[in-house]
Design a protein that fits this description.
The chain has 225 residues and is mainly alpha-helical. The chain is built from eleven helices and two strands; from the N terminus they run H-H-H-E-E-H-H-H-H-H-H-H-H. Helix content is 69%, strand content 4%. The chain is elongated and about 65 Å long. The model has no long low-confidence stretch (mean pLDDT 92).
Amino acid sequence: MSLAQQFAVQILSGELPEGHVFPSEIDYAHQLGISRSALREALRILAAKGLVESRPKAGTRVTPRRQWSLLDPDLLAWQFEAEPSLKFLSDLFELRLLVEPSAAALAAERRTAAHVTQMREALAAMAAHGLSTEAGRHADQRFHMIMLEATQNDAVIALASSIMAAIAWTTIYKQRKRALPRDPIPEHRALLDAIAAADPEAARAAMTELVRLAHADTEISITDA
């Protein structure tokens, strides 16, 4: 684990709370047994992601949560390592419900035959490998990525890395202690069928149901933990 990752997990878990002030650079580097340059680089990474800020004479402190780049793919990964709260997971799925159903409707209107073929291939790979495998999860992410690309909206596509990270980490999280509670292929197939049929409202409804069921699966995993 890198030093930046270690600090991030401590911040995201609340071990280093908002407002926490780090010791002086010289003292802290000595305390940790590392070089000042290594410490400085770790804090620079955290500052770039909004987790800390440095001010002259005030030192480096943990910023309020509202300043954190919570959709940064690294922060999403570190948040799951720090054990996400139920609210954080609910917030993620609420965001997905705000974005993905509308994106699915756009994809149904604007998709090309190539998009449909690629989504079909990704779904086949997802079904063949299963979401318990890295190959299956990669296929799942590709399926969603192609759907976002099919919107042909650059602003929507720019959200892809965050959405892909959210999908990947929630999928891993909800099966960390047991198998997935159900087969997610049917709702993915319903989404693909709606997009292939160029039916925006059916695509919107299918994506809404897909995200709703994924959220329910995640809540089950928390209850059973």
